[in-house]
Amino acid sequence: MPEHPTLLYRLYCGLTSLVAPLAWRTVQKKLQTAEVPINRQRERLGHASLPRPDGHLIWFHAASVGESLSVLSLIKHLGDRLPDTHFLITSGTPTSAALIEKRLPPRTRHQYPPLDTGGPVKRFLDHWRPNAGIFVESEIWPRLIVESARRGVALALLNARLSEKSVKGWAQRPKTARFILDSFRLFLTQNDKTAGNLIGLGANPGHVQPGTNLKAMSDPLPVDQDVVDGIRSEISGRPLWIASSTHDGEEETVLAAHTRLLERWPDLLLLLIPRHPDRREDIAAILKQTGLTASFRTATDPITETTQVYVADTLGETGTWYALCPIVFLGGSLKEIGGHNPFEPAQAGAAVITGPGYFNFAETFAPLVKSGGAIEVHSALELSSTVDGWLSDETALSNAQSAAGACVKVQENAMDVVIDTLCERLDLT
């Protein structure tokens, strides 16, 4: 349990209480826009919409889509190890909630997390009474963490990572950083650097353990075979490549690369999967400027002989698209966004292309790039050249796919180690 609160922590609690009504209005507006039912909106105020199950309850808290989905595989394996245990997963965005609901493991419930103020946190903890709480990545809510520890909840920070900005910020507040970090019994970090930073900020060295990126251990994405068969029928054997999880400012580069590729491969089809499907209007405008012909998934447009770009502007179908093609460019990397999980396409049997801005997955990409399972590019010219090389040389593409698959198998073996560590340090058994 943490020591006495610091002055800064007390100020934080006071300030968040003052701005709580404004914060609630802002959060509620976003949930209303996403058409979240009112009873689920009130979960952000700590009012549960589901009953607490009897017995042992382990609570996972994640920030958004990527972090939430990364723990589902862990919950499933942990549930196999602990057959009498129930699980709660909280995440803050409607998108993550929708995807999680489709893939909930047995004995698992989803809720939105409480606002980090006194009333919501108290109501949440009074209702759920978790035996253990596992926070994922850098999702640090001081009051929720401190109050949980005070109630005897065994806390862990899993897949921990800290940006340089966060490290510098906490370093200027060493007493408060140590006070909050003392709440955790275990830190499983993504890399040695984060482990060192946490210890430097005041975490108990005996509680810090370097690990691996949890997202590398996720189960393969689900595949709708009927959709795969239907799309293959529409494509009729045309060559294909994928640009997945693209962000604002990246589609221009991808489409410029595709335009170059069409000069050599006139029937080539690009399957474009934007990270945020609600950007479809912006993407349509970009496509209009390029002069490329496009079909949109949500418009139920068919893929015809003249379709040059197929925009998969839906959620939850990425695994289905990966099943169609072994060449995947992974976005969030041409800009300083941090990249996305390369093991998702690799698990599907794809070779991976990335831009240089994958710093959130540096340790994950390192063995992939070294082995040839992934290639880093910096421009539309390099992107088109890499795709062209794999389209032209089946042996080179097969070797890259095999290298990516081998890296996936190495990471999958780490799951048992993570589960063993959690069970031992948090007394889960």
Which features does this protein show?
single chain; 429 residues; alpha/beta; Rossmann fold; 2 domains; seven-stranded parallel sheet; 18 helices; 15% strand
Secondary-structure map with pairings?
Layout lengths: L6 H27 L4 H4 L15 E5 L3 H17 L4 E5 L3 H9 L5 E4 L6 H11 L3 E5 L5 H9 L3 E7 L3 H8 L2 H8 L4 E4 L2 H9 L7 E3 L14 H11 L4 E7 L4 H14 L4 E6 L5 H11 L3 E3 L12 E3 L6 H5 L4 E4 L12 H5 L3 E4 L7 H10 L2 E3 L3 H13 L1 H19 L2 H11 L4
Parallel strand pairs: 1-2, 1-4, 2-3, 4-5, 5-6, 6-7, 8-9, 8-12, 9-11, 10-11, 12-13, 13-14
Helix pairs in contact: 3-4, 5-6, 11-12, 11-16, 16-17
Kindly describe this structure:
The protein has 429 residues and is α/β, with parallel strands linked by helices. It folds into two domains: 218 residues, Rossmann fold; 188 residues, Rossmann fold. It has 18 helices and 14 strands. A seven-stranded parallel β-sheet has the order 3-2-1-4-5-6-7, with helices on both faces. It is globular, with a radius of gyration of 23 Å. The protein starts with 6 loop residues before the first helix and ends with a helix. The model has no long low-confidence stretch (mean pLDDT 92).
